Give the backbone structure.
Amino acid sequence: MMELFFKPRSVAVIGASTNPKKDGNIILKNIMNSDFAGDIYPVNPGADQVLELPAYPSVTAIPGDVDLVVMIIPAKFCADAMKDCAKKGVKAVIIEAMGFNEVGGEGKALQETIVNIAKECGIRVMGPNCTGIVSRDIATTFFPIRDVPRGNVTLIGQSGLLAAGMASDIVVNKSLNVNKICSIGNKCDVNENDLLGYFGDDPETDVISMYLESIADGYNFVKIAKKVASEKPVILLNGGRTQAGAQAAMSHTGSIASDNKIVEAAIKQTGCIKADDFSELKDFAKVFSTQPVPKGNKVAVVTAAGSVGVVVSDLCAEHGLEMPRLSDETVTALKDVFPPNMPPSNPVDLWYSIEKLGLVKTLETTLAAPLQDPGIDAAILILAGFEYTMPVLDNKTVQKITEKYGKPVIVCMLVGYNAYKNRITEELGNELPLFTSLISGVKALSKLCEYGIRKNKRG
């Protein structure tokens, strides 16, 4: 049944508007701008056409079959619209309107009515109080979007942010190779368990990131998440961990936040990867979706600043990453680019070699040699946004080295001029995980290494 939400043959938009500023117009335009090739039916009793498509007074007046309905009408009209969907034989509905369980009272009663109709008529409902779906095949969000990539990451969440502002940020800035984004709002019917199971079997999804304010069915969640997380990374951000957050969750989606201790236990039991905020939800997904999974946690740090190497060493130790001595073969390979009175070590200090050879030649030794070392599982590369770094971009030096040796590499960039930093972000950051914070980069790599060790133990 989930297939009807993501790959319907026909879709109707109840509340399609002729006003380009209205959500009902934007949703229709997003569907038209996607790769959706099926029939699109605007429903608006006051219009003959919307965006040059024939409009219908109700879903029951549509001549063809309707797989999916998107509702963007006031909450008080949604129950009657659900009854029309039942008469029409619709089996999947996304309700993007607000004013339901999250406001209590009458809104809560409206949501219960919709749930009852859905159960009686075999309709699956996503929402209400959500922003729907964003993908290349169909986009039902009311935030303008187009040209969604066919990536390998799926985001699921009880947040309109995911399928609205965050989705637009990701797509326009190409900051994450996303495939699908799904906002489930109050999750009156379709919940995280339905979607986790669906995307666990989805060949287009390699990494799943989830934001939840509550867990609908803890027993089933653990069962499904354990299975899926054994096959692909599942990253989880749990909102409502504190009393203040739980109160905010109640007014946001009407959710009674799950006990944080129980959620923490579920994360450990299932093998999910815990994120602490939305940046980590995206950062971890970037690392998991672009980098090979290492076998261990032994890391080489390559930097032009000794102080940065010291701080990264501290952070690695604090986050479960080891920085071993380099092998004799690696030390020998590095000696030519180190001063005679400075034996190579980990962290690998680049500055002498940069002044002598330039950054391209330097990295061809100082990054390549540690990645060849059998005692090294991954590397952290520190770059700066200055002119001397630009030849590395021109030659795609980092990409060539990382591709050759097949070990994960993350890049951190702390200083530099904006023009150069922006170019590094746009050209290198689109292919490799790039961080402007040392702790963010180290933490993301540590999660990847933890996952790799766990996976290696399972065999």
